[in-house]
Amino acid sequence: MRNWEQCYQTGETPWDKGCAAPPLLELIERHGVALWGSGPVLVPGCGFGHDVRALAAQGVAAHGVDIAETAVEKARTMPGGGLETYAVGDFLDPAWRVGQRFSALWEHTCFCAIHPGQRENYAASAAAVLESGGVLAGAFYLTPNDPGEDDSGPPFKVSIEEIDALFSRWFERIDGWVPQAAYPGREGREWVGVFRKLPQARVAG
C-alpha cells in the first residue's frame, strides 16, 4: 500500500485539487445544512482539509482526521472560520474510534484509497462513531481508471451495489445520485450516497 505520509512530504498528491469536492457543495445545496445534525461532522482521510473547511463554513463544527501527519499540519495552517479541527489518526483502527462520537460523516477519497479488504472495517468504524440516526454521506469513486490503465489501485473501483450491501448492516440509504458537479475528469464517475444509521445498529468492540 502507498505510504501516505511520504506522498505528502514529497508533494505527490494528485488527489488534492486545492478546493472542496464539488459533489459536497452539490449535496449541501440539495439537502441543506440540517443534514449534518448538531455536529461535529467527521471527515476521515481529510488531507489538507478543504472539505472540512467547506462544512465549517456552513456553521457546523467539522473534524478532519488523517493518517498523514504532514497533511494535518498543513491543514491547520490554512485559513478557516474557527469551527474546524484536525487530528492525526487512523479511522480504521478500532482503538482510535473509542470515545469518538459524531452527528455525521462526510466521505470523499478515503474509501477509494483503502484496500477493498478494509471496506467492511470502514463501514464498522463509521457505524461505531456515529450517533443513532447519524448521517453518512459520501462521493464514491466508481470508475477511477480509464480503459487499459493499471487498476491495481489505489484508487480502487467500487459499485453502487457493493456500497449498498456494505452499509446495509448498520445504515439505510435515504438518497443516491450521480452528481452534476465534479472535478475535471471525474464527470459521471462518482456517485453520491446518503445513509442514515439505524436506531438498533450496534458495533461490537
Can you describe what's shown?
The chain is an alpha/beta fold and 205 residues long. The protein has one domain: Rossmann fold. The protein is 27% helix and 23% strand. The protein is built from 7 helices and 7 strands; from the N terminus they run ααβαβαβαβαβαββ. The protein has helices at 4-10, 22-31, 50-56, 69-77, 94-97, 119-129, 160-167, and strands spanning 41-44, 62-66, 84-88, 102-108, 130-141, 171-177, 190-197. The protein has a 7-stranded mixed β-sheet with strand order 3-2-1-4-5-7-6, with helices on both faces. Helix 4 (69-77) links the parallel strand 2 and strand 3 (84-88).
CATH top level assignment: Alpha Beta
What is the CATH homologous superfamily assignment? Vaccinia Virus protein VP39
Number of helices: 7
Instruction: Quote the average pLDDT.
Output: 93
| Strand neighbour order, sheet with most strands | 3-2-1-4-5-7-6
Question: Unreliable stretches, pLDDT < 50, 5 or more residues?
Answer: none
Largest sheet: 7 strands, mixed
Termini, distance in Å?
26 Å
